[in-house]
Design goal:
The N and C termini lie far apart (41 Å). Helix 1 crosses helix 2 (51-58). The chain has one domain (2-109). The strands form two sheets. A three-stranded parallel β-sheet has the order 3-4-5. The protein has a two-stranded antiparallel sheet with strand order 1-2. The chain has four helices and five strands. By secondary structure, the chain is an alpha/beta fold. A hairpin with a 2-residue loop joins strand 1 and strand 2 (10-15). It comes from Rhizobium subbaraonis. This is Haloacid dehalogenase-like hydrolase. InterPro entries: HAD_sf (IPR023214).
């Protein structure tokens, strides 16, 4: 977290020993709102740590878009989902389609993961 200060007529930004926000889970929408000052119309995620961001974005008024990239291609890229120790994607796979979010499979929907 930072604070703007005016010391002896000199403006400065002072970094404080506090956490501004945690960029995961419920902290994602807080961080986004803090940076852009409004609810986005589109959000893209790849783990359950993005769930609240997708939920907040797609519950807004008007047209919205939510997309989850499912890392399920262990041959071309690391695969992780429901049983992973990190990057876990369980709740998003279960609830995402019910909420109208698009699920994109790296294995089935991408021709290339990394260009040559």
């Amino acid at each position: 977290m930072s604070r703007y200060e005016d010391k002896d007529g000199k403006p400065s930004i002072v970094r404080l020993p506090e956490v501004d926000f945690i960029d995961d889970g419920p902290g994602k929408p807080i961080g986004i709102y803090g940076h852009i000052g409004r609810r986005p119309i589109a959000a893209f995620g790849n783990s359950d740590g993005d769930f609240q961001m997708l939920e907040w974005t797609t519950s807004g008024p008007g047209r919205t878009f939510g997309l989850i990239v499912h890392h399920d291609d262990a041959e071309r890229e690391y695969a992780y989902d429901r049983n992973s120790h990190f990057g876990k994607l369980d709740r998003g796979l279960t609830e995402g389609p019910k909420r109208g979010w698009n699920i994109v499979s790296m294995k089935n929907d991408w021709n290339k993961v990394y260009p040559q």
